[in-house]
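Posting this for the archive.
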Amino acid sequence: MVDIEKIQKQAEEIVEKFSTVLESFEFGNEEEYYILETKNVLRDDDEPIMDMSFKKDALKIAPKTKDDYIVVEKSKWSN
């Protein structure tokens, strides 16, 4: 059988000991470091290049096409 009073007393002792340990630390003297001079470095975007040979090659190997598009079968989610 579970002795609730015993568990409560042990829990209170644990919290009391933990509080005592925390009180012994001085957190105010810790130095904090912040990195403020960071920025994202991005490349300049170029004009996109449309390589029509890729589209032609993809359409050649596709099993089914229609009006320059690849036709795929609609599928159901399987469990």
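The helical segments are 4-23, 52-61. DSSP finds two helices and two strands in the chain.
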